[in-house]
Amino acid sequence: MSSPRPVQFLRRAFGPLVEPAVFNFWAREVGSTASRDRVLARVTAKRAESSRAVTLELQPNRHFVGFKAGQHVNLTVEIDGRRVTRSYSLTGVPNAEGSLSLTVQKIEGGQVSAHLFSNLQVGDVVELDAAFGEMTLPETLSAPLLFLAAGSGITPLMSLTRELAQRGMPVETTLIYWARHRADLCFLSELKALAAKEPKFRFLVALTGDAAIGTDELRGRPSSELLASAVASLSSQSVYACGPAGFVEQVETLVAPIARSFQSEAFTPPTFTPAASSQTVTLMLAKSNRVVTVRSGEPLLAALEAQGIKPPSGCRMGICNTCACGKREGLSRNLKNGGENAEPEANLRICVSSAQSDLTLDL
C-alpha cells in the first residue's frame, strides 16, 4: 500500500493537536497549500500577456470562498525574507474548478509586481485574502455598457467582459482600451476575436504614442471628440472606467454628467508633495503606546512606514480596507475626495487618509 502524501500525514497525525500557525508552517515547508485557516494558492501556469505583463493561473485551497467578476484580491508573497502584500484584480470568471487568474503589470520601482513578473514560478505558493470590490455587474442588464480602460485598468474590465461573453453578451457593449504603445496592450487577440464573434461587442484601442493603423484603433487621450466618434449616445450608456487616477478623473469629467450611470476605480496611490509651510502633527498609537510626529497632509500609511511602523496594508489605494483602523480623536482628511472627518471613533483607511491635527489611532 502506498504511503500517504506528506500533507495528508500532517493533517491526520498532527492537525487536531497543534496550533494553526505551527500546522501552517510545516505544511508550507513540505510545499503544500494546506492550511488550517489561510487561503494559499499554487501557481499552475504563467504566461506573457504583453511586453510588461504576465497572467498567473492559481489554484487556491479550500479556504477561498469565491469571487465575482470585477473584484480584487490581496496577494502576499515573501521577498528577501519579508512578507509583502499588494492588491490585484482577478481577470477570469468563477468556474467549477475554483481556479483563479490575475494579470500583473510590471511597474517601475514596484517591488511586488517586479517579483511576480520576473521571479515567481509555476509551482510556487502565494497567500490570498478574500475577494473584494464593488465594480461588478448586476444580475439583470438593460442599458448598453461602455467600458473605459487605461493601463492595468483593463484587468477588472476584462473579467467583466469575459462574464458578459459567458452570459451570451446580453446587451450592447463597447470597450475602449487606452495605452501608449501597442506592445503594452493585454488580451489583444482574445478581445479582437470576441469582437469578430459577438455582434453586440465592439472593441476599440486608443493609442497615445503609436499611430493608429486599423479601423479598430483610435489615437489620442480621452476627449469629447474621441468618445463621440466611438459611441453614438453617451446618455444611454452605463459606464465603467478603470485606470490611473488622472485618467479616471478625466473620463469622469467628460462622461459622468452625461451617462446613464458611472462607476470607476483608480489604480494610483495618493501622492504627497510637502509644501514649504508643512506643519507637523502628533500621532498617538494607542495599542502600542507609541507617539510619532508626521507631516500634516501626508498619507498616514506612508508616514508610519517611514518611521519603521508596518501596519497591515493591501491595495494602498483606499479600496481593500486592509489598512483600516479606528481613530479615537482628531481631524483627518480623505485624500481621494478631500473630505474632512472630526468625528471620534471613526474608521480610517490610512493609505488614503492624512492628519490635519493631532490624532489618536488604534494601532
From TrEMBL:
Residues 279-363 form the 2Fe-2S ferredoxin-type domain. CDD domains: fer2, FNR_iron_sulfur_binding_2. It holds the Pfam family Fer2. Gene3D superfamilies: 3.10.20.30, Nucleotide-binding domain of ferredoxin-NADP reductase (FNR) module (3.40.50.80), Translation factors (2.40.30.10). InterPro entries: 2Fe-2S_ferredoxin-like_sf, 2Fe-2S_ferredoxin-type, Beta-grasp_dom_sf, Cbr1-like_FAD-bd_dom, FAD-bd_FR_type, FNR_nucleotide-bd, MRET, OxRdtase_FAD/NAD-bd. PROSITE patterns: 2FE2S_FER_2, FAD_FR. Residues 36-138 form the FAD-binding FR-type domain. GO terms for molecular function: iron-sulfur cluster binding; oxidoreductase activity. This is Ferredoxin-NADP reductase. It comes from Panacagrimonas perspica.
